[in-house]
Design a protein that fits this description.
Length: 103
């Protein structure tokens, strides 16, 4: 399972640049560059609901629709480390998987 770092601090699942979910999903079926991907699991924090009571998960399953990525094997990410970018994102389309590498 990949180690995940996430700088989408506006996501309700983010705690100290890590995700509190057990797994995430990355979108970008026809992506040929990282800016065409996104974290489908992103949910903008409204300030009231956060996962701060939960602990970050450092290694997780990552489902991936970006079949053009070298790390994608049967719609599952096999990279050692994955980085999700999206500082100040307001929706999932403003995030991206910066670990995407086109085949």
């Amino acid at each position: 399972m990949p180690n995940l770092k996430c700088d989408a601090c506006s996501c309700t699942h983010n705690k100290d640049y890590n995700c509190c979910l057990n797994g995430i999903a990355v979108g970008g079926k026809s992506a040929t560059k990282d800016s065409s991907t996104c974290c489908i699991s992103f949910v903008e924090s409204d300030g009231a609901m956060t996962n701060y009571s939960q602990e970050p998960v450092y290694s997780m399953d990552i489902g991936c629709e970006a079949t053009n990525c070298v790390h994608n094997h049967s719609c599952t990410c096999q990279a050692d480390e994955v980085s999700i970018c999206g500082d100040h994102a307001c929706n999932c389309q403003e995030t991206q998987c910066s670990s995407f590498c086109c085949k």
